[in-house]
Amino acid sequence: MARSIRNKPGLAIVNQFLISQRPGLWRSTTTRSLETLAFEEVRSSTERPYKFTAFVLHGLLGSARNWRSFSRNLASYLSNSFPSFDWRMVLVDLRNHGRSAEKIESFSPPHDMGSAAKDLADLINTQGWAWPDVILGHSMGGKVALQFTESCARGDYGESAQLPKQLWVLDSVPGIVKAESGGEVEKVLLTLQNLTTPIPSRKWLVDYMIQRGLSKSLSEWIGSNLKRTEHGTWTWVFNLEAAVQMFNSFCDRWDPDMIQKLESLASRRVYESDGKLFVHVLPNAGHWVHVDNPKGLLEIVAPRIATLA
């Protein structure tokens, strides 16, 4: 459970769990450091220094670019709410995904949550950054965020490591959960594993996914993770088999007992130094919350992050 995380003296962490439920001038820079994760930065302005940093971690089969629109809207909200404080959004391509998958040899096995979290710490240290104020992780990214925070609290990344002030876990179940063959994510993975590559076109893939029962918005999002090969065909921007290994290391499944436990923890009275847990329910959304209801997600996330200013 996330509440088992121990804070360092004088630090409080706000854990936010979001459960999905069915029925200006912009500067964006892209970087990859040698032997570290690829990432890109989104800021509403470069004319003044940023004061706060938020890491945004995509989910399984996703990439940093999937969260550009949401991150821009979040930065805009925060900038408009507090014009004197600029935010920097760091959108990370986790191992085996996006541009971080271009050099798979840079990331040694095991391909699990512990390794993915350590990649973040290595990126921070390589860049010489301060530790992030906020971490927002979706699905697998939420698991990585939890593991990163727990490792920080244990001192695994050294004495300089600091806990984030807020941790957002979007539709990702804390703890170890067994996969189910009928789950939405499992269905997507099985469909992709049965595909032959190279893929003729993005439209062909979208039609193929829709014919197999996936929604149009989800199919188009999956299609956005294609890149053109030198032969004019298409292939994935992620390493599919390594991504499956990462999924098998965490899995995701909500059940009534888990939701009840989280809601019970959220209702507890705690000392401020112990941090606070909140549970939010996002309506009209499946697992891919930023695709199904990005406006509703922003309305939940942005006001609470703004309290840090």
Automatic annotation (TrEMBL):
Residues 56-298 form the AB hydrolase-1 domain. The keyword Nucleotide-binding does not apply. InterPro entries: AB_hydrolase_1, AB_hydrolase_fold, Serine_prot/Carboxylest_S33. Keywords: Hydrolase. Signal peptide: none annotated. It holds the Pfam family Abhydrolase_6. GO terms for molecular function: hydrolase activity. SUPFAM superfamilies: alpha/beta-Hydrolases (SSF53474). It comes from the Eukaryota. PANTHER family: 2-SUCCINYL-6-HYDROXY-2,4-CYCLOHEXADIENE-1-CARBOXYLATE SYNTHASE, AB HYDROLASE-1 DOMAIN-CONTAINING PROTEIN. Belongs to the peptidase S33 family. This is Alpha/beta-Hydrolases superfamily protein. It comes from Actinidia rufa.
